[in-house]
TrEMBL record:
InterPro entries: Alpha_CA_prokaryot-like, CA_dom, CA_dom_sf, Carbonic_anhydrase_a-class, Carbonic_anhydrase_a-class_CS. The keyword Chloroplast does not apply. PROSITE patterns: ALPHA_CA_1, ALPHA_CA_2. It comes from Morella rubra. Residues 1-167 form the Alpha-carbonic anhydrase domain. This is Carbonic anhydrase. Residues 1-31 are annotated as: Disordered. Belongs to the alpha-class carbonic anhydrase family. Belongs to the alpha-carbonic anhydrase family. Reversible hydration of carbon dioxide. It catalyses: hydrogencarbonate + H(+) = CO2 + H2O. Its EC number is 4.2.1.1.
């Protein structure tokens, strides 16, 4: 009889251990599902934020510079910065990668001896850390959303456009 009680107790312990393992698996699966749901929510929120930023940028197109906003020299010819506009997503790619935003800085020359009167410098943006130049412009965008007309953006120095690569 002692043997039977021990066997019964061992069977009960094994069954309880099985239940505990199944419960643990179920809890782990629920935890995985919660993490996946949270990741999907975060991705959706990031996508919505990206779309809102892109819509605000689109409302800013194009940005005209007045007076001497700067210039570039190509093969001895000066091209003066006239205008900037954005494309979202980027119009161009590097090694097949497109970026969230691309700024085109349009330069023009008045040199009559030059065949190509326009030079465009492109700058890629990736949504992430705030960009000082764009942040300055964004302050004016909210007030522009309802009024679809030209607006003086005040003094914006194109030298604030940060060139370079962060990896």
């Amino acid at each position: 009889m002692k043997q039977t009680m021990r066997e019964h107790q061992q069977i009960m312990e094994e069954q309880q251990q099985k239940k505990d393992e199944e419960h643990q698996k179920m809890m782990q699966e629920q935890q995985r599902n919660l993490v996946e749901q949270q990741e999907r929510r975060m991705q959706l929120m990031e996508q919505q934020m990206r779309e809102q930023i892109m819509e605000q940028i689109r409302q800013l197109n194009p940005l005209q510079w007045e007076d001497d906003a700067g210039s570039i020299r190509i093969n001895g010819t000066d091209y003066f910065l006239e205008q900037g506009h954005w494309h979202s997503p980027s119009e161009h790619s590097i090694n097949g990668r497109r970026y969230d935003l691309e700024l085109h800085m349009v330069h023009v020359t008045e040199d009559p001896s030059v065949k190509n009167k326009i030079a465009v410098v492109g700058l890629f943006y990736k949504i992430g850390q705030p960009d000082a130049f764009l942040s300055k412009l964004m302050r004016n965008i909210a007030s522009m959303a309802e009024i679809k007309a030209e607006r003086n953006m005040g003094v914006i120095d194109p030298r604030e456009i940060k060139m370079g690569c962060k990896r």
